[in-house]
Amino acid sequence: MAAADEQTALAAVLTPGQQHDATVVNEMLAMVPQRCPIRAAVMDKAYDSDAIRGDLHRAGIQAVIPSKSHRRRPMPHDRTLYRCRNGVERLVGRFKPFRAIATRYDKLACTFMAFVHLVAAFIMTRKFVNTT
Q1: Where are the domains of the chain?
Q2: In this predicted structure, what is the pLDDT of residue 70?
Q3: Strands 8-11 and 2-5
Q4: Is residue 3 helix, strand or coil?
Q5: What is the distance, to the nearest Å, from the Cα of residue 76 to the centroid of all Cα atoms in its chain?
Q6: Over the stretch 79-109, which tens digit does the pLDDT of each residue have?
Q7: Measured between alpha carbons, how far is 36 from 48 in angstroms, rounded to an integer?
Q8: What CA–CA distance (Å, rounded) separates 125 from 70?
Q9: Which of 42, 44, 78, 93 is deepest in the core (most CB within 10 A)?
Q10: What is the pLDDT of residue 74?
Q11: First-last CA distance in the chain
Q12: pLDDT digit string (tens) for 105-125?
């Protein structure tokens, strides 16, 4: 999931259970609306690969990814900016009370993703309702 903050989901990609999420990073970034420019991609250690870092660099996006422990030369990352990843984790946590998402009973990916989009809109609507 790509998110702007803890209440605003920008894009979501569903992968099969046996596929790692890092394989769809470029697809995810392409799904983010053009009116939401990406300045930094804050990801966890699972996304630490030269290919992902290179793709982000070519796109002009700052990679904020801590290095894996087995990397020979650890790559630096902005620790202050990395704290923003907590917001994405909280957004994912906001989805979990919705049983249809937490249990994934839907057989079709399109049905499941439709509900993900509906819940994302609901969470975002609560953001605007609570601020007024």
Answers
A1: 2-131
A2: 87
A3: antiparallel
A4: strand
A5: 21
A6: 899 888 888 889 989 998 988 888 888 888 8
A7: 24
A8: 43
A9: 42
A10: 86
A11: 27
A12: 888 889 999 999 999 999 988
Which pair of structure tokens corresponds to residue 57? 């660099």
Count of alpha carbons within 13 Å of 53, Cβ hemisphere only? 14
Question: How confident is residue 5, by pLDDT bands cut at 50, 70 and 90?
Answer: confident
Output the 3-class SS for 50-117: HHHHHHHHHCCCEEECCCCCCCCCCCCCCHHHHCCHHHHHHHHHHHCCCHHHHHCCCCCHHHHHHHHH
Q: Which one-letter amino acid corresponds to residue 78?
A: D
Picking from 60, 58, 68, 87, the residue whose alpha carbon sits closest to that of residue 22 is 68
Cα separation, 102 vs 41, whole angstroms: 26
